[in-house]
Design goal:
The protein is of the alpha/beta class. It has four domains: 79 residues, GMP Synthetase, Chain A, domain 3; 170 residues, 3-Layer(aba) Sandwich (Rossmann fold); 73 residues, Helicase, Ruva Protein, domain 3 (Orthogonal Bundle); 97 residues, DnaA protein, C-terminal DNA-binding domain (Chromosomal Replication Initiator Protein Dnaa, Chain: A, Orthogonal Bundle), CATH 1.10.1750. Strand 1 and strand 2 form a beta hairpin. The strands form two sheets. It has a five-stranded parallel β-sheet, sandwiched between helices. A three-stranded mixed β-sheet has the order 1-2-3, with helices on one face.
Length: 475
């Protein structure tokens, strides 16, 4: 339909009112590409280039658009927003041959479609790029500490397209290494396998910011926004790293649009919403309006199961790895942190076995994992305590240990004492030397290296040192 000049003039005033009332930022984000299509029988029809814009305007601005339209166009029974199919305005047609001019580089028009393609390509590449194929529900160890989070994630992953959503958004928080990313990846894998009709997007907060900056540089934030229009499940990891007012506003727009359309949003962070101090209060309130669940540190039984699972995978990759059951039990009791820390302890023990080609014993494991004990506090262990234990164990007087005597019965206990002081306290080499009779730091370093080398080949000495470590720890 051809729009009369009078209607066009009135529409321009509508546009000016929208810009004045909403501000330049909101107007540019949502209305800059809106065009009037028809005005008849008290019905205003406008068009926008994307479904995302149509949905957002209908959800958040349709009443304001009708109110401002009535002020300039007269009474309106309805305002209809549709998606136009012609896309962006066609490029200018070249003048006739006799008018043709050679454009300078400054006059050459910039391509319009390229930015949209670049932004879309970056977003699509990120949809599943961050997923680890091994992080699925089958490999996730469920225990009392994570049972609720696991159940909620399974409910979301198994929901049918268009089914009623029990909780939205779903917010999962936990410390590092407790399984947040594993669960997000598991949801994405499960949906891709069982519900291929549902579109999933997995992004970290950092990736979200990078893509938005790219869209700003390409001057094509509309394409960035439109990427979320077809998403059924949005997964955001490391949400605590989302920084900047503009970034948060953009995420809030995408978040509100998806939630209002009953699309599922899952957010993971290190802390609960109330502790996201850098996030806008309105956004925190929206996050708290869904289901908020936490993942705690695993209990002993869960730690045992995690270790057995990781050990099974390790042996599958390398059958030469042999770690006795009592050592696995020792790790489960000693390392009380996250699953990542448990796996790190297991890798340490395996590396020790391979590099030294020695059987792993409980005593050696105790020494290797000395710095990973539950609630370590090296400041509680004093050099005086070590001297007392060494003297009692080897039946050597404190005076002899601190003296210049070079007898083997004194030198070996002294060197072991220096080794334990270096490994079990935060004292520097010079300070240890002073506490062992005013010796030079190089003497302490020589003693530490010598005992380290002998432990690798002398099982008797290794067991003796491991016993001393336990005696010192027990006080």
């Amino acid at each position: 339909m051809t729009i009369s000049n009078d209607v066009k003039s009135k529409w321009e005033r509508v546009v000016q009112r929208l810009r004045a009332e909403l501000g330049e930022d909101l107007y540019s984000s949502w209305f800059a590409r809106m065009e009037i299509e028809d005005l008849s029988e008290q019905r205003l029809t406008v068009s926008v280039p994307t479904r995302f814009l149509k949905s957002w305007i209908e959800t958040h601005y349709i009443s304001k658009l009708q109110k401002i339209g009535e002020a300039e166009l007269g009474a309106l029974d309805a305002v209809q927003v549709r998606v136009r199919t012609r896309g962006l305005p066609a490029p200018r047609v070249a003048p006739e041959a006799h008018e043709t001019r050679v454009a300078t580089p400054q006059q050459a028009p910039m391509p319009v479609a390229a930015p949209s393609a670049a932004v879309a390509q970056a977003m699509n590449a990120d949809r599943m790029a961050s997923l680890d194929p091994s992080q699925n529900f089958d490999s996730f160890i469920v225990g009392p500490s994570n049972q609720l989070a696991h159940a909620a994630m399974c409910r979301v992953a198994d929901a049918a397209q268009g089914a009623a959503i029990s909780f939205n958004p779903l917010f999962v928080h936990a410390g590092a290494g407790l399984g947040k990313t594993h669960l997000l990846s598991a949801v994405a894998h499960r949906i891709r396998e069982r519900r291929p009709d549902r579109k999933v997007m997995f992004l970290t907060a950092e990736r979200f910011m990078i893509n938005f900056v790219m869209a700003l540089r390409q001057k094509d934030t509309i394409s960035f926004k439109d990427q979320f229009a077809a998403v059924d499940v949005l997964l955001i990891d490391d949400f605590q790293f989302l920084q900047g007012k503009t970034m948060q506003q953009e995420f809030c727009h995408a978040f509100n649009s998806l939630v209002d359309q009953r699309r599922q949003v899952i957010v993971a962070a290190d802390v609960p919403p109330a502790q996201l101090d850098a996030i806008d209060q309105r956004m925190r309130s929206r996050l708290m309006g869904g289901l908020v669940v936490d993942i705690e540190t695993p209990d002993l039984e869960t730690r045992r199961r995690i270790l057995m699972s990781r050990y099974g995978l390790m042996v599958k990759r390398d059958p030469s790895v042999v770690i006795p059951d009592d050592v696995l039990e020792f790790i489960a009791n000693r390392v009380t942190g996250s699953g990542r820390e448990l796996e790190g302890a297991l890798n340490r023990i395996a590396a020790y076995q391979q590099f030294n080609q020695a059987a792993v014993t409980l005593d050696l494991a105790s020494l290797v994992l000395r710095d990973m004990q539950a609630n370590p506090d090296g400041s509680r262990i004093k050099i005086d305590d070590i001297l007392k234990i060494i003297g009692r164990h080897f039946n050597v007087g404190r005076t002899d240990l601190l003296s210049p005597r070079r007898a083997r019965s004194v030198v070996v206990p002294r060197q072991i004492g220096m080794y334990l002081a270096k490994k079990m306290t935060a004292r520097s080499l010079p300070e240890i030397g002073r506490r062992f009779g005013g010796r030079d730091h190089s003497t302490v370093l020589h003693a530490v290296r010598k005992i380290e080398d002998q432990i690798k080949t002398d099982d008797k000495l290794a067991r003796e040192v491991a016993l001393l470590v336990r005696l010192v720890e027990q006080g």
